[in-house]
Hints:
mainly beta, seven-stranded mixed β-sheet, six-stranded mixed β-sheet, 2 helices, binds 2-acetamido-2-deoxy-beta-D-glucopyranose, Ig_V-set, cell adhesion molecule binding, transmembrane helix, Ig-like domain-containing protein, transmembrane
Amino acid sequence: MERSMHLLLLVAHLTGVATGQTSETIVGTLGDSVSLPCHGIPSNGTRSVVRWLKDGKIAASRNLSSMAGPTGNVHFSVSDQGSLTISGLLLSDQGIYSCNDSVPNHTAEKQTDIQLLIANGPSNMWTDIKPTVLLPNGALFVQKGSDVSFNCSSESYPSQALSWVFQGDTSNSSLLSSSDRSPLEISLLNIQPNHQGTYSCISQNMLSNRTASKSTSLLVYYAPDRHPECFSHAINDSLHLLLHCSWSGSNPLPMLHWEEEPGAHGTRPPVLNVSMTTESLEVTLNRSQLYNGQTMRCKAYNNMVKSEAKFCSITLQSPFPQGNPLVTAVEGSDITLTCTENSSLPPAKTTWRRKISQEEVVPGAKYVISELGPTFSLKIINLTKEDEGPYFCRSENPVLVQELEVFLTVKSSQTYAGGVVGAFIAALIIGIGIAVGTSAYRNRDRICLGSGFG
Ligand SMILES: *[C@@H]1O[C@H](CO)[C@@H](O)[C@H](O)[C@H]1NC(C)=O
Ligand SMILES: *[C@@H]1O[C@H](CO)[C@@H](O)[C@H](O)[C@H]1NC(C)=O
Ligand SMILES: *[C@@H]1O[C@H](CO)[C@@H](O)[C@H](O)[C@H]1NC(C)=O
Ligand SMILES: *[C@@H]1O[C@H](CO)[C@@H](O)[C@H](O)[C@H]1NC(C)=O
Ligand SMILES: *[C@@H]1O[C@H](CO)[C@@H](O)[C@H](O)[C@H]1NC(C)=O
Ligand SMILES: *[C@@H]1O[C@H](CO)[C@@H](O)[C@H](O)[C@H]1NC(C)=O
Ligand SMILES: *[C@@H]1O[C@H](CO)[C@@H](O)[C@H](O)[C@H]1NC(C)=O
Ligand SMILES: *[C@@H]1O[C@H](CO)[C@@H](O)[C@H](O)[C@H]1NC(C)=O
Ligand SMILES: *[C@@H]1O[C@H](CO)[C@@H](O)[C@H](O)[C@H]1NC(C)=O
Ligand SMILES: *[C@@H]1O[C@H](CO)[C@@H](O)[C@H](O)[C@H]1NC(C)=O
Ligand SMILES: *[C@@H]1O[C@H](CO)[C@@H](O)[C@H](O)[C@H]1NC(C)=O
Ligand SMILES: *[C@@H]1O[C@H](CO)[C@@H](O)[C@H](O)[C@H]1NC(C)=O
């Protein structure tokens, strides 16, 4: 569209100047040289005398039959072929030129009118994008949400078209604005990440079609308002702790820093002090470096963006399996032992073991193991007297191994007169077990862990 406008202007210009005789237009560039051809000179036969007229007045002439070299001054010269060469073009050289190539008997006269137009530029291109900060590689960056102004100027004679063109990282280039006036200023309000890309100001001389451009790479920097996400889990059979921190949606890549929160570790160096320029940072810690209540903190920041650092943290918790420590059941019936493990961080691996020797319970016809949320169940089928004894709900995470001991008492079925009464008494016994057992366990745990819980 811009192009056709230039063309229209050019045509209008030409027809305005020309008087009907003009057959050719030549555009020269200020300071350069141009050669105007003299058509119709016979290449064989009689050599003629060539005269060049500018706006009807003789500017240069040459007798091509004479051995003498080109005549005229340095500015105008007529070549052996009769063409007029103008060097060091000046604006004043614009005009209608005609070549008068009369042969001696005036029969082969040919005349051509040539309009010479002088163009200059584009030159002195200058662009300014603000408010921005210059990076060492020459790119500019701006904070997301800023209002950015783009200013461009250039010099061109007789006229020019200036345009601002945007080429995004993934998109095709698009014309933002264009004008025939300099400077050309545009602004983008509330700049967004998809405005990151290359901004070029292009100037085209409307007469010579010569173009010049200046491109600037503009980065849009931002950081999320959210906090980073922290999570932990046990790896290598709880020998190690894996800590993961991620913070996406930052440009440029943020700095993530995992550290052990000062405090409990006193004067020893922190076990964790790792920084990296990344969106997600994973670190592994050895079991021997961990304790209950220890807090690991992930700090995320983008120091190119004026916003505060964001944090997330993980406070390690020992496992703490809870449940009835005393369970009584009747021979021949089925019983389900349960244990709840919901305090461990990272989540514990909870298993059932039996007897003082702590044999791992193998699921099968005798034992059914199930898990519902934080509750772990062990169902023992068709109880016999041999099933009596201690069972252990064992929870392990990289911080600690904790066990809940459940003592199962199996009553002989003959002891009870009727099933209903027996079940009632059994329930009563279990109820007492809950009250007594839980508190006994809690007391024991407190003694074991000292001041570890808090
Ligand atoms: C000059 O050349 C043209 C064709 O190039 C020819 O027609 C003409 O007869 C020639 N004239 C002379 C005088 O040789
Ligand atoms: C051109 O030069 C030739 C040879 O020098 C000469 O015979 C002729 O008269 C000259 N013509 C003019 C118009 O000066
Ligand atoms: C060629 O130039 C001479 C000298 O200016 C002039 O007398 C003559 O009329 C011109 N011929 C034509 C066809 O313009
Ligand atoms: C000059 O012109 C006449 C006709 O006007 C022509 O007969 C003659 O051959 C021409 N002379 C030359 C030397 O071309
Ligand atoms: C754009 O640049 C021109 C020329 O340098 C200047 O006069 C004008 O004030 C600038 N505009 C803005 C908005 O900076
Ligand atoms: C980019 O241009 C190409 C061809 O010019 C076209 O096929 C493609 O759809 C364009 N893509 C976008 C995102 O405009
Ligand atoms: C400039 O471009 C236009 C359109 O493409 C063309 O018509 C014109 O001749 C060109 N001018 C020059 C000096 O090349
Ligand atoms: C821990 O497990 C990872 C893979 O999960 C393995 O690369 C690494 O060697 C293991 N470390 C130890 C000490 O077992
Ligand atoms: C963490 O490491 C950095 C360098 O790696 C060090 O400058 C800093 O003092 C360390 N922080 C602590 C608390 O040791
Ligand atoms: C854990 O760290 C201790 C001391 O730093 C080291 O002796 C031990 O080998 C490490 N264990 C593993 C499994 O990496
Ligand atoms: C864990 O489970 C126990 C019993 O179900 C409940 O009282 C306690 O509030 C739970 N704790 C958490 C942190 O969910
Ligand atoms: C329960 O076990 C006893 C003795 O081991 C056996 O006789 C009885 O058939 C079993 N009952 C069921 C329902 O499996």
